[in-house]
Amino acid sequence: MAAVILSLVGYATAAVLWAVAIWRAPSVLRGGEASRSLTVALAAIALAFTLRIPRVMHLFDVTLGVRDLSVLIKHGATVISACFLFDYVNALHGRRPRMAGPVRARYLPALLATVAMLVIFLVALPRTEASDLFPVEHTVGAGDVAYMAVFYGYLGVSLGLSGHTFWVHRGSGRNRLRPAAFSLTAGCVVGCVYTAYRVVIAFVRQVQHRPPLGDEAVTVGLTSVAVLFIVLGVALPPLQSLQKHLDNRRAGWVIHQLWADLTDLYPGVVLGTRESRVRNLFTVGSRARDVVDVVIEIRDARLVLFEATPAELFATATATARDAGLRGEALDVHAEAVWLHAALHHARVHGDGGGDAAAPTALETREDASRNRTPDEEVDWFLKVARAYSRLGRVYRDARDRGPGSGSGEDGGNAEAVGAVPGG
User: Fold this and answer.
1) What average pLDDT does the segment 327-331 reach?
2) Which residue from 123, 90, 127, 118 is spatially nearest to 106, judged by alpha carbons?
3) Which residue, of 198, 218, 241, is where some domain finishes?
4) Are residues 237 and 249 in the same domain?
5) Do residues 360 and 379 share a domain?
């Protein structure tokens, strides 16, 4: 049962790595240096994990006719992956490499390690018997020690430097990128633990001449956890960007009704072309700028509306919401929504007359407070207002459907809406 589980974990890890590598493949052509390095690192580690699968190893060796060649390529791919992961973190944080002729200086250790492993493989390692866990399944000799020293030495140092760089720069980017930095650091740390574990196992085998109990499970577990952290660190930024994009789509949908009612009355505040709610939802591209523009248009129209309505209207809306037991931000949001419904109704009935902006009101006080909000806080505020405004609109429509005898609506009291303010 344990063997089946370990086999499934191996297949799943390789599949996830190939999926992420293929997903990032277009960045090789259109991305920057950091994107290209990361894609190469992921493709290399995906190849290495594929060659860890016993059936793939056997098929590879039988097809090429060289025993244990799959293990050499697996280790070479691991070295390349560690090299380009280090290249990625340096490019990501703007640390430009020095040039050593046509080859970058930090590529040289990986190249030398790969060449050394190849020479030891061809010259110093006996391959009289097949091995799934080469070279540690062989009797540990001088060639095995040299091979493992080169491979694990480079892997440990490279992952250690990458993890250290990720950790040092964890706070240099935007807040939403910090979880990715922590995850990548954790992946490198677990990779270093795996490297140290394999070195310890090599010494244990010199004494016992066989792997300790549970060695394969520990090896698979450590490598899978390290890959999980690295893949998570790579995937978090685009997933967070996707979440932000969906949030902007949802915000555009939520705020559209309030925007439409205000700009129908004051079309001059619209910065661009008016679009329907459905068309906005399915427009291709980022909507972050559009949401900010909509909030600016709502705020401009609202200021014009304020000048066109009696000053006491907002005070009445606030008092009615307070009487319903609302306090704090909930009171402000609901009072704003009730005032917007009543003020829009008043403006439609009376036009731009009837305003008394000179009188001090709670609305002016809140207007002064709103100037201290950041753009994101302003968007969040108007989203809350838009939700309350839409809920009130549904209550008003239901009241109209029940007929004038219900005693509710935009031109009368509405207990269900926490007291609709008289509109004219």
Assistant:
1) 84
2) 90
3) 241
4) no
5) yes
The structure tokens listed for 8 are: 């499934």
* Distant-in-sequence, close-in-space partners of 214: CB < 8 Å, separation ≥ 6: none
Residues 227 and 249 in one domain: no
The model's pTM: 0.69
- DSSP assignment of 36-56 equals HHHHHHHHHHHHHHHTTSHHH
Mean pLDDT across 185-206: 87
Contact (Cβ atoms closer than 8 angstroms) between residue 252 and residue 280: yes
Question: How confident is the model over 235-278, as pLDDT tens digits?
Answer: 888 888 888 888 888 888 888 888 888 888 888 888 766 666 66
Question: Domain range for residue 217?
Answer: 2-241
Last residue of a domain, one of 241, 261, 286: 241
- Residue 211 DSSP SS3: coil
* Helix residue ranges per DSSP H, 209-311: 215-265, 277-281, 288-307
423 occurs within a structural domain: no
The token pair at 150 is: 């080169």
Q: pLDDT, tens digit, for every residue of 44-66?
A: 999 999 988 888 888 887 887 77
Same domain, yes or no: 278 and 390: yes
